Amino acid sequence: MVVIGGGTGLPVILRGLRDQDIEITAVVTVADDGGSSGILRNYVNVVPPGDIRNALVALTNLPKLERDIFQYRFDSSDQFLAGHAIGNLIITALAEMKGDIYQAVQELAEMMDIRGHIYPVTNEPLTLNAEFTDGTTLSGESEITAAHKQIQRVWVTPTNNADQHEPAAMHAVIEAIHDADQIVLGPGSLFTSILPNLVIKNVGQAVRESKAEVVYICNIMTQKGETDHFTDADHVRVINAHLGEHFIDTVLVNIQPVPEDYINFQAWNEISEPVQHDFTGLRAQGCRVISANFLRLRDNGAFHDRDKVVAELMNRLHDVH
């Protein structure tokens, strides 16, 4: 199984898959430019490590203390180290030592007793670019989201290279996609976690050509500045449009209502409203729709129930093969 994404959604699914009897490959976006990742990227000229760190922790067999140390984030009073996670610093140091983020992640995966494989989608940091429906463009994931404008399309360019060559995924990424029995997209930010991987030419081509079942885990809530007022069919429509064909086979949709008075929109300020359903629109794009209660309410927020999602993915894997 190949899981493609980034942000907070990817590690949720990876943690659930870690103990399943499958070979897991996580393909992780390298277009993040916010928080600790963004600062390290700007100062050290390295692939942003945050999403990679979370994937490593999700798949490690290390005891809880070691996991907690790796995830520990210095608080704001620490000035120089403020906001940095120890794992981000370790990944950055190894990447500098090896001169290669891919090799650094493979060595760290061995040190951390990882179950499966974790591949940065490219061996160089990428910048996310967006064109909005009003014709304007912006560069940088944080800037794009903060603009709160309707996005028409996104693409990626190399961050550090003046010749603006075509970004390409590592051979290991393409090989994993070609060998997969199931390819999972999401859950996660549509324009800033999922599409930055798929718009890389050889990744999109490999996913389109794959004989694997492509499963999209649709978000439960819409995201401010990205998917305001989107239905589940709108999410799929955008992904398909970026790759030029209807390639998503199956969509997992949560149909358990989110209680109106439960969500703390100040604490979870990236979300706006539950994703509305358009099953006719999904089927018109050739999708098999699996609708169920995938909802987990916690901390006044709405999330996917990891165990229920993973159980459905495993059911699909066994049904198809």
Automatic annotation (TrEMBL):
This is Putative gluconeogenesis factor. Gene3D superfamilies: CofD-like domains (3.40.50.10680). One of its GO terms (biological process) is regulation of cell shape. Required for morphogenesis under gluconeogenic growth conditions. CDD domains: YvcK_like. Transmembrane segments: none annotated. SUPFAM superfamilies: CofD-like. InterPro entries: CofD, CofD-like_dom_sf, Gluconeogen_factor. Keywords: Cytoplasm. Belongs to the gluconeogenesis factor family. It is found in: Cytoplasm. The keyword DNA-binding does not apply. GO terms for cellular component: cytoplasm. It comes from Limosilactobacillus ingluviei. One of its GO terms (molecular function) is LPPG:FO 2-phospho-L-lactate transferase activity. It holds the Pfam family CofD.
